Amino acid sequence: MLFNSYNFIFWFLPFVLIIYHLSLKLNSVSISKYILLSASLLFYALWKVEFVLQFIILIFINYNLSKLILGEYSNKLNHMKDRISLFSFIVSLVINLGFLFYYKYLIFFMSQSNEFFGTTFVLEKIIMPLGISFFTFIQISYLIECFQKRVTQIPSLLDYMQFVTYFPHLIAGPIVLYKELIPQFNDYSKHKTIYKNIALGFFLFSIGMFKKVVIADSLDEHTAIAFDEGGIRFYRSWISALSFTLQLYFDFSGYMDMALGISKMFNYDLPINFNSPFKSLNIGEYWRRWHITMTRFFMGYVYLPVSLSATRKYNDCRSPIIKFFNITIYPIVLTFLIAGIWHGAGWTFIIFGLWHGIGLAIHRVWQLSKLSIGKYMSWLLTFIFVVIGNVFFRSPDMSTALNILDSMFYTLVEILLLRNPELGHASELSRLFVFIIGLAIVLLFKNSSELAQKFKPNLKHFTFTIFLLVLSLSMMNRQIDFLYWQF
Amino acid sequence: MFKDQYKQLVFLIIIVCISFLIINFLIWFTYTSKLFRAYPWPGDLSRMDLNPSIAIVKKEKRTLDKLMVLPDLDIISPGIYEKYHNFPKPRVYAKYSQDTQDIFQRYTLVSSEIPVLTMGDSISRGRGGGVNNYWQDFLSTRINKTVGFIPELSDNNMLRDAILLHNSGFLKKYKVKYLIIQTGESNAIRRFIQETDFNESISLKELGYLISKRSGGTFLDPGHAVIGESIDYALNASNNVYYRAMITQFLFMHLNYMSETADKIFKHNIRPLINQDDIYENTIEHDLRDTVLKRHISSIYYDADMRTRTMDYKAASAFSSLTDKFNVSAAMNNNYKMLIRRIQDKLGYYNPKRSVKNISLTNKLFSHQDGNILYYASSDFMSNVKFNKWNETEHWTKRMNEALNKLSKKLKSEGVTLIFMPSPNKLTAYQDYLASPLPDSGEIHPKTKEKVSSKSTFFETLESAQDREYKFVNPKKIISMHLKNNTRDVYYFDDTHWNNIILSDLAKVIEDKMLE
Fold first, then answer.
1. Cross-chain CB nearest to B332 (options A46, A202, A476)
2. pLDDT value of residue B288
């Protein structure tokens, strides 16, 4: 079910909100927790009921393995505590990553094997469970925290299930940590109707809907002209690439605002995932502001262990270049390569990951050089760098990506060399209008988190909320899926 | 009102949202639902113009002896129906006697031999609706031969489509003797002057899948009758279905509800009907009498969002028009446009960019109460101007004629005769009966530097071509003859498509061309 669908907005959300807040009047924490859990499972089942059972089984397996990792079992086995913990941890990783691999990557690897090794795997379409990348990562993160003994108290099964299935973050994140959510479920001050939170929830939800329905969906048709409709020319390529960069931002951050807003209506805070990424002046800063919880996951669970291991291994290395490469460059590139693959099974995502990994590595070298190119040039370079990465992200295949980039940059070189290349129809440049408006919003206005902090129950905020809501509802005629659903 | 200002804010937001819904509901019931409804639907001009006052609902009905067929794709793409689409091959369409409840007529729906193959746009898909709305049915009945239909395979490149049919061996396989290409006047040029490789080919199997894929909602086009009539029966046989659908609309469930209806009708009525094995056990009347849509709110709710996406492929495509018209988001969007339109009308504001325009006629040529007014698509006007402006300098007609000649030669080598039949736009058909001149086009001819006329010259230019190697059918002549005799409703009042009035004559002209 889409957050921007009529059935969600006019049925699911009001119904669940009313039932939940009525249940709070009963002063029974368990009942309200069960209601929220049921709502989350229903939310998932509304997509495909067939997947609910395996989802629940996976949660059960992970919950029980986490207990083994934390050493909750018969005292007779205490002498094998560490080995059981390690074994359980490895089993849990194999199960979760295996689950992810089967649904998300098996077809890709089989097709590549057929192509490069002449195997004859039969490729049958596997329907991927919705939000698989997010709910497996949320559980992996919990299991790692357990293994690292950061989880001090085993949550109840109800809390754990609620943590994993909580519908505002279930489909596309944010990738929450257990400590960010489970303690809130047991915070009794949150088990009452707080109108301030509901009002703030409406406010955030309306901003998110506006971003998604009005801006992102308006950019969609301009994005498609080069990526989907062919006819790749200089103007079209730039229009599509620029439009997609902002579409992705407004789409995903819009979803996040809606998720944060919905969660707020239930009195729970989710971590922010975007912090004006396009105000970044370098690629490192960009990744600290873009999809923050995903970056946190990969930095915490991939980059840091690899980097620490490399530091131990190469700390005494005499060659500064080898040392720098192994301790700094290699972990970054590897981390972003994996992050690219996480986004999807395909060469375009692999290149997307490598592009950003190498970009971050170059930025690290640049930082060491202490050189500066000025604020505006830094912004422009960062933005163009992101746009190029997104060409790979959005293209259906590598040849489309390379054709678009060729058209964007080789033609630019030809223009500079006064060769008079074919540019396409200049009239199509009017398609940049929505992009320019979007860019102005991104650069000149406060982001939704900043706006939420200043939220007050006054006419200004009421009018603003209603304006965004009604405008979005009136324009909700396209119902384009959220881009991050496929992940 | 509330001590807690946040509480006040929350309730105000809820009140505004509910008001928004109620306004939508009222607009839907008062105006929009009259245009955007389930089958039978009103004409495209009334929908484009958001104008319920000109809307005429046209139910489909077949009375002719023969119906056109689809190619039996199983013979070139084995298993395409069952394996690829999970759908039984459409074989037979049966008509039942109203009195005796017995089958009185049975039509074949697919054929492995198609001596006359037609290809075309919405005119060939019977999109005007009404009684006997397929021109191919008239032709088939007149010449007593199997007449088949395939949809466009490429985007506005019928030349390529015909080449693919030839080079893949499709025409040979289905023993085609005549290929009749119909195209609307507006798109005729661009469908034949695109750069096209005359040697391009694909395998027959791929072509089968392409035809099937491109057919979409018209996959069962001959069965369109079946679908249309069945829905009609279902909606009327069960008195409160439509009423319930409207209530459901208010509850924002109709998307699911109507697709459920469509799905149910499909599964229980259409499917057995078109499956020969079941035909004697399942009559239309029996099944439709039993179509009572009892669904619990929970099950309606459960399927709400994804229902149309997870629907049986064929059900989804066959009923695409139905579900489209009952798509809640489209309804909301149209409500919004409808409100603006009504406000503009009240204020007497005329938006010059309207997609539908009207002009007075010299005499009453439609049976509607405003039958001396012609409603036409603005795009007809624009396409006339475009043609008059660029045809000469861009050699459009010449290029199209050359392409058709080249195609004709290619087809002749395998004994296939090409017949080209452009169909006039509504404005073109009635242009000699306008009470006042059309508005100034505002365009200057690049060569003569004179104002470009907005009167269509397309058919006259085509008629004058000297070196034609294909056969040319000009429906405009038949239409003009009827209009000269003051025949009403040659085209539907509220639609861009023609009525069946000229189709009998058209079939005769095509037959004459075949015999030439």
1. A476
2. 34
Tokens of B54: 């000109």
Whether a cis peptide bond, with omega within 30° of 0, leads into B422 is no
In the structure, what pLDDT confidence band is assigned to residue B219 with cuts at 50, 70 and 90? very low
How many CB atoms are located within 10 Å of the residue A418 CB? 7
**What average pLDDT does the structure give for chain B?**
75
Exposure letters B350-359 (e unless 16+ CB within 10 A, then b): eeeeeebbeb
Tell me which amino acid residue B361 is.
Answer: L
Residue A476's closest chain B neighbor by CA? B329
Q: Kindly write down the DSSP assignment for every residue of B172-185, as one continuous string.
A: HHTT--EEEEEEEH
With a cut of 80, say whether residue A418 has pLDDT above it.
no
Pairing of strands B373-377, B356-360: antiparallel
8-state DSSP, A128: P
Task: Report which secondary-structure segment, H or E, holds A101.
Answer: none
Alpha helices (H) in A373-410, listed in sequence order: 375-394, 398-405
pLDDT at B324: 39
A224 vs A243: CA distance, rounded Å:
9
By C-alpha distance, which of B4, B21, B10, B16 is closest to A264?
A: B10
Each as own residue / partner, the long-range contacts of residues B503-506 (CB below 8 Å, 24 or more positions apart, any chain) are: B503/B132, B503/B135, B503/B138, B504/B138, B504/B142, B505/B478, B505/B481, B506/B135, B506/B138, B506/B139, B506/B473, B506/B475, B506/B478
The 10 Å Cβ neighbour count of residue B34 is 17
How far is B28 from B334, CA to CA, in rounded Å?
9
Q: In this predicted structure, which of A118-132, A404-418, B460-474 has the lowest mean pLDDT?
A: A118-132
What is chain B's Cα-based Rg?
A: 25
Comparing CB atoms, the residue among A202, A465, A473 nearest residue B20 is: A473
A38 touches chain B (CB under 8 A): no
Amino acid at B203: S
* Locus of tokens 């109800």: A158
Q: What percent of chain A has pLDDT over 70?
A: 93
Q: How far apart are the first and last CA of chain A?
A: 15
Amino acid symbol at B182:
Q
Contacts of B474 by beta carbon, 8 Å cutoff, 6+ apart: B421, B422, B459, B462, B463
Nearest C-alpha neighbor of A424 from the set A226, A223, A218, A220:
A226
C-alpha dihedral, B44 to B50 to B55 to B57, nearest 10° = 60
Q: Which of B229, B255, B237 is nearest to B126 (CA)?
A: B229
Of B4, B13, B329, nearest to A6 by CB-CB distance is: B329
Is residue A260 within 8 A of residue A287, CB to CB? The reply is no
Higher pLDDT, B307 or B507: B507
pLDDT at B331: 55
What's the rounded Cα separation, in Å, for the pair B374 and B364? 9
Q: How many CB pairs under 8 A join A and B?
A: 78
- Closest to A471 measured CA to CA, from A214, A205, A204, A256: A214
Convert the pLDDT of each residue in A155-166 to its tens digit: 999 999 999 999
Burial of B206 by CB count in 10 Å (0-12 exposed, 13-18 middle, 19+ buried)?
Answer: middle
User: Which of B1, B10, B326 should be substituted to probe chain A, the one whose Cβ sees the most A Cβ atoms within 10 Å?
Assistant: B10
| Structure confidence by residue, pLDDT tens digits, A316-331 | 878 888 888 888 889 9
First to last CA, chain B: 86
pTM of the predicted model as reported, rounded to 2 decimal places: 0.69
Q: Is the pLDDT of residue B38 over 80?
A: no
Whether residue A46 lies within 8 A of chain B, CB to CB, comes out as yes
Helices (H), A46-177: 50-69, 81-100, 106-117, 132-147, 157-165, 167-170
Contacts of B13 in chain A (CB under 8 A): 199, 202, 462, 465-466, 469
A424's CB contacts (< 8 A; 6+ apart) are A231, A233, A234, A235, A236
